[in-house]
Write a structure and sequence with these properties.
Elements lengths: L1 H21 L4 E4 L1 H5 L3 H38 L5 H54 L4 E4 L15 H7 L8 E2 L5 E2 L13
Parallel strand pairs: 1-2
Antiparallel strand pairs: 3-4
């Protein structure tokens, strides 16, 4: 009976240790801004979006100039104009202002749609690579750096460098963070250590 209790206790301890080992959680973080800023396709998408946005802004400025010219004409000559001409110009200005607002709203929606179209395949590629890196390096969870309330000084849990390397990109040597300091990239190739 004494031996049976000892065996039972040993088995219980063994299962408890195995259960603890299986439930170890490894949490990493990923600096999206840092990684996306180094992807050639993201730089190309940014240039494409910038050109598209600038074209829309020029179109908007042209429409604003047309309305402004009509308004200035109305202010200078409005009192001297015949009533039907003045009323027609007022209506043109009102219609122009409404069209300008509509154009501006549509342009904002178009820019958002274009941005989504350009970044969607890049984000899909990043997500796939991030999942692969997390799995290969034993991370249970990977959070975006922007969501961290506290960033540890130990950068071995930052998987950004591992993602860049997996994508075949040599990480930039250093970058400036928002607090004005310099953040050196994680050169750890093992994927970090388990948190205590």
């Amino acid at each position: 009976m004494k031996n049976l209790k000892s065996i039972f206790l040993a088995v219980l301890v063994m299962f408890s240790l195995e259960s603890v080992a299986q439930n170890t959680v490894k949490i990493g973080y990923f600096d999206y801004s840092y990684v996306i800023g180094q992807l050639p396709e993201a730089k190309a998408a940014e240039a494409d979006l910038k050109a598209y946005t600038e074209k829309l802004q020029k179109d908007l400025q042209t429409k604003e100039a047309e309305i402004r010219a009509k308004y200035e004409r109305y202010m200078k000559e409005g009192e001297k104009m015949a009533a039907p001409t003045r009323e027609a110009l007022e209506k043109e200005i009102q219609t122009g202002q409404q069209q300008l607002q509509d154009f501006q709203q549509k342009a904002e929606a178009d820019v958002a749609k274009k941005q989504n179209t350009l970044l969607s395949p890049i984000n899909d590629k990043l997500e796939k690579t991030l999942k692969e890196v997390a799995k290969e390096n034993g991370f249970t969870y990977v959070l975006r750096k922007e969501t961290l309330l506290y960033e540890p000084e130990d950068t071995t849990l930052d998987v950004s460098i591992l993602v860049l390397k997996k994508l075949g990109i040599t990480p930039a040597p250093a970058k400036t963070n928002t607090t004005g300091g310099t953040t050196k990239p994680n050169t750890n190739t093992t994927g970090g250590t388990k948190p205590r």
